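User: Sequence recovery, please. Input:
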């Protein structure tokens, strides 16, 4: 259990559900230890620099000629109209963030620095997996929010990715497991394993589902 994942103020229902499953695991003979991944707290910042940058670069090909819809004979109009009409708001938002992060004067300050921090996080996860087979952590700081509840508050939505982004930026397999429902909203936890150890996740998930 990564200590840093349990330092944040996630809600009591999530905490109680995870405590219950860890006690069941101990009672069944499984060993549970605390490990530290200090730089994991920077994962969210790293993710929202690197991923939007990659999205911005990738979506540059959508000009209506090579990729994307053809809407006009005029190249510039086709480019602007096609992206404006067919890209969702979240895609546009991430393109803007990524374009800023890669712009002149910010590439080294933001993108390059985020790449270095990602490597540091990856090294710390590798060290943790020398001690344990599986990492167990919350999926989100709270229960699932209601459909559409945060649609006008993207920053709040991004913060709910706090615990899941590290698997993405380090390239390790992870799986979410439902632990139940409270106030008609689901509660989840996640398991993470070293690269290529996906089978560990399936085995551990099966055990937890039997215990929960």
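Assistant: Recovered sequence (212 residues):
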């Amino acid at each position: 259990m990564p200590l840093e994942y349990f330092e944040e103020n996630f809600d009591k229902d999530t905490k109680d559900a995870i405590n219950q499953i860890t006690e069941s695991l101990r009672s069944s003979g499984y060993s549970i230890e605390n490990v530290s991944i200090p730089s994991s707290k920077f994962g969210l910042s790293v993710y929202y620099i690197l991923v939007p940058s990659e999205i911005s670069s990738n979506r540059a090909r959508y000009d209506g000629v090579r990729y994307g819809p053809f809407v006009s004979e005029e190249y510039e109009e086709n480019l602007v109209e096609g992206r404006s009409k067919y890209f969702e708001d979240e895609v546009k938002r991430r393109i803007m963030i990524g374009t800023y992060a890669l712009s002149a004067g910010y590439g080294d300050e933001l993108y390059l620095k985020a790449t270095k921090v990602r490597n540091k996080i990856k090294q710390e996860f590798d060290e943790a997996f020398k001690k344990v087979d599986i990492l167990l952590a919350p999926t989100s700081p709270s229960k699932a929010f209601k459909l559409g509840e945060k649609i006008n508050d993207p920053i709040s939505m991004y913060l709910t990715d706090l615990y899941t982004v590290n698997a993405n930026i380090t390239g390790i397999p992870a799986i979410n497991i439902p632990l139940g429902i409270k106030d008609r909203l689901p509660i989840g936890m996640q398991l993470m394993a070293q690269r290529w150890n996906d089978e560990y996740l399936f085995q551990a998930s099966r055990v937890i589902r039997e215990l929960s």
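The helical segments are 12-27, 43-59, 75-86, 89-102, 107-128, 154-159, 165-170, 198-211.
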